[in-house]
Each structure stands twice: as C-alpha cells, then as structure tokens.
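Two proteins were folded this term; both appear here.
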Amino acid sequence: MSGPLDAGAFPASALYGTFGPDRVFVKAPSAANVSPAEGYRFFGEVDTDGDSGELTVRPREQDGTVLFTQVLRPGRVGQ
C-alpha cells in the first residue's frame, strides 16, 4: 500500500477481502506509529516500457535501496 507523504507507519493488518487482495511484499514495524527516525518511510518508482506496455514497480528505502520489484504486464489478470 502506498500512502500520502509522511503517513504513519503501522504493523501489517488483515486484508479486507472484498476484491480478493494479495500481499506480495510487506515491510512494516511491529509497533504502531513509529518515529521517522526508526525508518519505515519509503517511496516508490514506476517505469513504463512504451513498446511492451509493461510497468515495473519498485518500492524503495529512504536511501534509494530497492525493497522489491514487480513487473506488471498489460492484459494479465491476477498478476
């Protein structure tokens, strides 16, 4: 999940199952609303390939370290 700038960091909670969500990556603190000094502040990057239409999504740490990479291909349901 991505949120607004400087949203609080909270432990992972149960997903609301109405639309069939799936967790593919989680990095969350064990306590609620931890200080920014403890980390858990991330940003994301999305690259679009104009030829194939693929989206490459990368959440990153504050220092730019990639946490996870997911490639989304057009026309694929349930990637």
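Next, the second protein.
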Amino acid sequence: MSTIKEYIKKRPNISELNHYWENASRVTFKKKNDNGFDISIECDRNFILLEIDNGYHEHINVEDFESEEEALSQIFGLARDLLSKNMRIKVISKSGKPKKWIVEYFDGREWEQESTMGLLLFNPFAKEIVKIYSNDILPPRRFEDS
C-alpha cells in the first residue's frame, strides 16, 4: 500500500470525500460544479505534488520536513482549505491560455494573496481575461483573531 493511501485510510474525514484513485500514489478530489476545481495529490518518496485541474500546482520536497507524515499533513492542509470557500484561485488568461494563477484566502474581511504561479511566455498585447474558481465542498476553517 502506498504512503498516501495509508495516510488517507487513517483519516476517515478525508476518505469520505468524493475522490478516486488514478493509480496507487495519486488521488483526485472531485469538484461539485464548473465554478470549482479538481484537486489531485501525488506522492513519491522524494516529493508531493498538488495539482489543480486548471493548471495550478504546488510541489514540496519531503526532505524539507521532519517526516513524510508531516509533509503529507502540510499538503492535505492546503487541499482541505482549497476544498472550502475560504480559498479560491484566480486564473488570468491571454489568447485563451492561462498565464497566471493566484491562490487567495479570505481573512474574514478581504481576499489576501497566498501564492502566485505564472508563465513567462505569453502575448503581452492580447486581452486579459480573469476567472475565479472556488470550491464549497467543506466548511471553511474558522481563524479567531488573537
């Protein structure tokens, strides 16, 4: 059994979500509608990859954490937030092709930028189109101001 399957098996709250296995080390959580996005997580001994079906991805090295379990907790924490309406992805396209992805979180008052990923090759004169994707599969986590 792969490490990612063992991780999910130990957490019934994750395994109850609508998901399917692409192979022994890659799981995908399905979106509810076209305004959302699928989230895939793939685990290897050296890396963990989180991919969104609109092109955004996060890559972490397992070696940067004390254990593989800690690295999986980190990436599944991000996936958990991306499955709620407190996180969204803004996709900026030119010439019909995505060129920039901005992950944002809602801090209770406004949307804040979490991370950005972009491509360097695009037509600078093409019209820019912005589309926002957000899931509403899990309730948002509540963060109390200290």
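The helical segments are 3-9, 12-15, 68-82. The CA atoms of residues 7 and 35 lie 29 Å apart. These notes refer to the second protein only.
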